[in-house]
Amino acid sequence: MNFKHQEEPEYKRLFMAIFLSAVVLITWQAQVEWPRRQALSQLTIAERQKEKEAFSKHNQQVSTQSAETEDSPNLTRAQRIAKSQRIIIKNKSIDGSISLTGARFDDLQLAKYHTSLAPGSPEVVLLSPNGDESAYFSQIGWVSADGSVKVPDAKTPWKADKTTLGAGETVNLSWDNGSGIIFHLAISLDEHYMFNIVQKVENKSGKEVSLLPYAYINRSHHQSKQQYNAILHEGPIGVMQGTLNEVPYSDLHEKKNIAYDDVTGWLGIVDKYWLAALIPNDENYKVTFSYYQKNGQDRYQTDYLGKTITIAPDATSNYSVRLFAGAKEVALLDRYAAGDNKDAPIPFFDRAVDFGTLYFMSKPMFQMLNFFYHLVGNFGIAILLLTVVVKLCMFPLANKSYKAATQMRELQPEVAKLRERYIGDQIALNKEMMALYKREKVNPASGCLPVLIQMPVFFALYKVLYVTIEMRHAPFFGLLTDLSDMDTSNIFTAFGLLEWGAPGWLHLGVLPILMCASMIIQMRQQPKPTDPTQAKVFAYMPYFMLVIFAKMPAGLVLYWTWSNVLSIGQQALITKRHKAQKERHNKHAKASGAAA
Is residue 310 very low, low, confident or very high in pLDDT (cuts 50, 70, 90)? Predict the structure, then answer.
């Protein structure tokens, strides 16, 4: 048995647990999630070559639809929108329009979300026209199987039966190719962010025609932003045969083209809070994620190509697809994933919210947090209540840990005497230390177990605060206006009273200071290290954590601070009870001795 390892007091392990948590918080996803995502998106050279040859013809036709000549780059977004006739779309969740030129979804703002907390700040813009600096758009159409049929493209002038589209409504678009084939698009919208598009083709040409349905989402993404985010995935995403595939921008930028055959699922492009996704109501279609440059822009596209549909003379054919363009609200994505009486389930649609490897913990934690929020109406208070629940779940284990800490503190004089007595004889010292712990029934390692168990909870909550839109701009009280961002109060500006441009690194909020103070108090309750070096490390640890937590989401710092406060109270109560029990035991021993 390694006595040296077991005699180390719990404060050293406690420090190592907390220190490693900070390191793991930064590197964990990069080391675990990043290789996994690369493995999912990697295709062998032979597979890529085979798919490239198989899809070459169709992908070129689809890509042509998004590669039309663009207008002058000097045009503003509003000017580009004004250049074409449009169908105005509006419900309680979105504002925008659909261009009748190309039947393109390229103008969408999110009515419930704004760019900042400032009063009157503009709505978040999700979709923008082609050629714009932030071009982001979707198009649905047909490809001719042999090139003999004139099909609608990005310049096609569609006709509409109405000029507006609201929740629960449908607008019908039509275009005659002049050769007896009429194309229709029936576009409907629910009360949130989901469009349903039914593609219909009437064949009055007198001959059989073969077409393939397609749709794509195309986006401009600046090179400066092509950095891998170790905390969550942003970029092309899709569910292929029940497997979630996430391709980082940087990965696609390198490969240029990644293709999947016989797909069943959905595809799109995901941001931290927003999602644009296509959900074909079909199986065994082809999906391609691609990258190219155009007019100095880095462009990324996710598209699908359906199976060939043959339409006999005087016959019609229908094909439907759904387009989601909006906020990743967890409850809403869950509803779409489950489906309802009208629409089929969308497998793993809720995974667009990147809860990560700890999904089994992160999502239930979010649901509990959301439950408390609906009870009290404040996410900050909800975090406090969630912390209490976590503490209650760990209460028996924590009690045992804090009792051991109290006993260890009382044994420090005895430990110091043993160290003096056995200087230079480590084996004898270890033996006597273990005998002391055994005699007093103390386990020096028991104190760090609650901290280690709490680490996954910490990571899961960090994910919830970082990736869920429900936490975006969620206020607490006073200067804590956004729990998903760092504490914006700053002692170096007297909390806003001094108007001077403090550099970004010179920032320290109230909440991290309170967290540091709580750690100092908590550590004073622990047994002091007898080793001088360890004692210094132990003393500086709260300030080390202060620097790290200064830039953490305020909600996470709130959780850690409140958890420390509850631990302090629990430790104080256990220490008081232990002293009372010891006094009663001593009184009983004295009374027994006097009687004897």
Answer: very high
CA distance 201 to 315: 8
Q: What is the mean pLDDT of residues 67-87?
A: 79
All structural domains of the chain, each given as residue ranges with its CATH number in brackets, are 3-25+365-590 (no CATH), 42-354 (2.70.98.90)
| C-alpha to C-alpha distances, 454 to 25, 117, 362, nearest whole angstrom | 13, 33, 13
Mean pLDDT score of the chain: 82
DSSP for 289-326, please give it. Answer: EEEEEETTEEEEEEEEE---EEE-TT-EEEEEEEEEEE
Decide the pairing of beta strands 86-90 and 164-165: parallel
Tell me how crowded residue 540 is: count the other CB atoms within 10 A of its CB.
11
Q: Quick one: tokens of 270?
A: 């995901």
C-alpha–C-alpha distance, residues 322 and 53, integer Å:
29
Percent of the chain with pLDDT over 70: 78
Q: What is the mean pLDDT of residues 206-222?
A: 93
Helix/strand/coil percentages in the chain, nearest 5: 45, 25, 30
How far is the C-alpha of 13 from the C-alpha of 446, rounded, in Å?
A: 10
